[in-house]
Amino acid sequence: MAENTDPGSLSETYLQISPNILASFPKFRPPVDLYVFDPAVGRTGRYLRGGERLSREGQTEVARFAEEGRLFLLREDYRVYAEHLSKRLGLMLVEEGFLPQEVAEIFFLALRDRMADFLDQPREDTFEALRRDVSILAEYVWIDPSRVAFLTHTLERDYDLAVHAVNTMLIGLALYLRLTGGKVEKTVLISLSLGLLLHDLGMVMVPRFIRDKEQFLVRRDRESIERHIEAGRNMVRRLGIQDPIILECMEQHHERLDGSGYPERRFDKDISTMGRLCAVADSFSAIVGDRPYHSARDTADAVRLLIGDGRRYDPALTALLARVMDERVTE
């Protein structure tokens, strides 16, 4: 071993690598430093540096260490590990030892990357990959709805379409679980998650220079942006997506209670619950995102803005948003 250290408490300093997780690593070059616990001396030492080549004999030995529960990585290295593990999201349902905030970050990375792939190539195969990971997230939250509190603390401020989609999904799920008291059907969670992710799908058809324009939008620019809803509808139709919850999120997230929204200028009761919820989550995520034409606002400021706009946004949902963002997550 390269070194011996006394971690004090293994669970605080190290994260155990199970055989399942080890099997997800590249065979010859693990992505993180590997540590092995030696029970004879009660110490943990580094066995291999991340990226170094592991011989076939070493692979056999490392596999044995994992089976014996003696293989670890440093918790401080989990971000590198999270990028890798986000490609094998199903392990989050069967592995123990992760802190809730670590799981939340892995989910964020996985869904951000899946969404980016889909936006780049909106085809059936990329949609199915996205749906698979969304189903895993829905299962995770359905098992314990309180877990969504950790997910809402992974929001990113650097704006792009994929990040905005995931931010909107996490806030929207938290609102829905608050609204229902955590009593939800897993199938609804999947549909809502997809609807929140896909709500702005049509924006890929809007030229980037218009989406990020810093100066005042002229009429033709605004019309181009408003057409993103119809563009999104056409894209999901071509993929055979007919889920009403997905369509409500996509079609109604820019409708406003006072009729000032678009594309159909709906009023109050003509806007569905999912449409209202997506409108709040979408607007909140846009406000806290860092855009070329405005700096990211503080989450408290964003909540105040939406609560103060009760003519356009559902007051019951903005009140729930305030409760969601006031939660203090503890380990």
From TrEMBL:
Keywords from the UniProt entry: Hydrolase
Gene Ontology MF: a single term: cyclic-guanylate-specific phosphodiesterase activity
All copies of domain HD-GYP, residue ranges: 139-331
Pfam families the record matches: HD_5
Entry EC no(s): 3.1.4.52
PROSITE patterns membership: HD_GYP (PS51832)
Xref: Gene3D superfamilies: Hypothetical protein af1432
Name used for this protein in its record: Cyclic di-GMP phosphodiesterase response regulator RpfG
Native organism taxonomy: Bacteria, Pseudomonadati, Thermodesulfobacteriota, Desulfovibrionia, Desulfovibrionales
Gene name for this UniProt entry: rpfG_4
